[in-house]
Design brief:
Blueprint (H helix, E strand, L loop, with lengths): L2 H14 L2 H7 L7 H19 L9 E5 L5 H8 L3 E6 L2 H10 L8 E5 L10 E6 L8 H11 L3 E11 L2 H10 L13 E2 L1 H7 L4 E10 L2 E9 L1
Parallel strand pairs: 1-2, 1-4, 2-3, 4-5, 5-6
Antiparallel strand pairs: 5-8, 7-8
Length: 222
């Protein structure tokens, strides 16, 4: 499946099926035990990605690619960054705008669109938490190649790691009708993914496992 086809599937899923689920998951509202493990894992991953950036972000322009409801963007703006949050889902962008703290509004802008849009301009840093987990290795390599000329320092992002559990879930998931399932995560080996990248350096950072949340952080430097 091409990048564009995958992107369109993700947009449809989040705007028509999963908006309420993600709105609740990314809030302080009580959730089930399984979703609580996902929430805890996402919190740990958000902290891990931020730890790969400088402590002082004043003057830095950062793209939050696939910003969802805005939690990561808010933390980056609170540390002094000028943050551009982009998500393919207009409904998630609406939630992010409504949740923006008043004292951060001058440091944040949100828009619905493609995270690869060259019109967004250059950035010191790019973060993409769980927004590239549906793409093939070839697509991810092309994404990084396209972003490299507009990236001054580093990009940190996540992929689904190639573990026995996730591979089993991936194979079983492909048996179900497409109408009622989310876009399929594509598991990756960091080493094999790095071999696909020719326009910069891709480093393995750390894996976060929390119940049903399993994700691997990577760092790209052009």
């Amino acid at each position: 499946m091409t990048y564009e086809a995958t992107r369109n599937n993700v947009e449809t899923y989040f705007d028509r099926t999963a908006t309420k689920t993600w709105e609740r998951l990314t809030s302080d509202a009580p959730v089930s035990g399984i979703r609580a493990t996902v929430r805890a894992g996402r919190d740990r991953m958000r902290d891990l990605l931020i730890a790969q950036l400088p402590d002082d972000l004043h003057g830095a322009r950062i793209l939050d690619a696939g910003c969802g409801t805005g939690a990561l963007a808010f933390e980056l703006a609170a540390r002094g960054a000028d943050v551009v949050g982009v998500d393919i889902s207009p409904q998630l962008i609406d939630i992010a705008e409504k949740r923006t703290p008043d004292d951060l509004r001058g440091s944040l802008s949100f828009s619905a669109g493609d995270m690869l849009d060259a019109g967004l301009g250059p950035f010191d840093h790019i973060v993409a938490m769980d927004s590239m987990i549906y793409y093939s290795a070839d697509d991810i390599a092309r994404i990084l190649e396209g972003i490299a000329p507009r990236l001054y320092q580093n990009m940190v992002f996540t992929v689904a790691p190639r573990t026995p559990l996730l591979m089993a879930m991936w194979r079983v998931g492909k048996l179900f009708p497409r109408s009622d399932r989310s876009p399929t995560m594509v598991p990756h080996s960091p080493e094999k993914l790095a071999a696909k990248v020719t326009s910069g350096t891709l480093l393995n950072v750390e894996r976060v496992t929390s119940g049903f949340y399993i994700s691997n952080a990577l760092e790209f430097r052009a």
